[in-house]
Amino acid sequence: QAKRYSSGDWIHILFTWPRSTVLHRIRSPVLVTTCWTFLLALLDLWSDKVAKVRILKNFSKSPHSIVGSAMSLLLVFRTNAAYTRFWEGRCLWETLTNKARDLTRMLVAYRPVIGEKTCERMADLICTFPVALKHHLEGFMGPDQEEELARLLNPLDRPGVLQAVNRPLYIVQAMSSVITNDVPYQSDRWTSRERLAVLGMINELGKCVGGCERIVQTPIPLHYARHTGRFMGLFCLTLPLVFIGEMGLLAVPAVACVVWCLYGVQQEIGLLIENPFSRSTEVMPLLLPSSS
Predict the structure, then answer these.
(1) Per-residue CA distances from 109 to 103, 105, 178, 248, 283 (Å)
(2) Count of domains in the chain?
(3) Could you tell me if 94 and 191 lie in one domain?
């Protein structure tokens, strides 16, 4: 079962905050803005003691109030866009799982016609397909991944799959070739209708490969990411000018919390979930639904 959180986990979530993946990834902007706020707060205190004038006391809040509305819209748009990609990836993986199960059920139903060895070969290819697609989408293939594929594959298909550039598509082609060439026509039980039905299921697996590749190879537009990043940086770096006048040194933790919230939602959470096929198991465990 996939891991789920309940309302009673809030204490555990708070205590594990220092080990947060998001906090670790955004530590640079949080530390920079915190140090910047601390320096400005010291400057404000120094000017108050030496010149008896607080240089940041009367800084206007209007610019940040106006820009805050646009910031909230950007946060919503960024999160929704990323989650749409995440959900589309999950739907594609669900389609892959369902079609693989349908194909397996069809092969079992026609096992006497197809033959035991051919069914076993097809079963090995079906089991290997989601693993090969997972490695293909992650863009990483090491010795452990090679060994995992070799262990799942039939000796007849092992050399071709391991040498292929696009292994999931090669497996789809191998399954189509087996059904087309290795299963003889029988007028009473295995006709063109059954053959086309099985090939149609295999074609659906091939469409899943293309859909998953589209998500991986089409990131959020670079211009949008750069503009929102610059907008966020300027907003957070000028935020201490507003906080220090009212809060003094308390502006340091306040700004740190605000930057953590903004960068966490706008930048890192969006980046993490916009690619549901990343190697991070916290995003979406790909083989959990397909392992059955």
Answers:
(1) 10, 6, 17, 75, 36
(2) 2
(3) yes
Query: 13 lies in a domain?
Result: no
- Quote the DSSP letter at residue 250: G
Q: Scanning the structure block, which residue is given the tokens 């086309």? A: 196
Instruction: Please report, in tens digits, the pLDDT of each residue of the chain (292 residues total).
Output: 666 777 777 788 888 888 888 888 899 999 999 999 999 999 888 887 877 777 777 778 888 888 888 888 888 888 888 889 999 999 999 999 999 999 999 999 999 889 899 999 999 999 999 999 999 998 877 788 888 888 988 888 999 999 999 999 999 999 999 999 988 887 678 888 899 999 999 999 999 999 999 999 988 888 888 888 888 999 999 999 888 888 888 999 999 999 999 898 877 888 888 888 877 655 556 555 445 5
Is residue 26 a part of any domain in this protein?
A: yes
Do residues 81 and 224 share a domain?
Answer: yes
Those residues whose C-beta lies under 8 Å from the C-beta of residue 238, and which sit 6 or more positions away, are: 63, 64
Task: List beta partners, residue 190.
Answer: 186
Q: Answer yes or no: is 15 within a domain.
A: no
Residue 27 lies in a domain: yes
Spatial distance between the Cα atoms of 109 and 80, rounded to a whole number of angstroms: 43
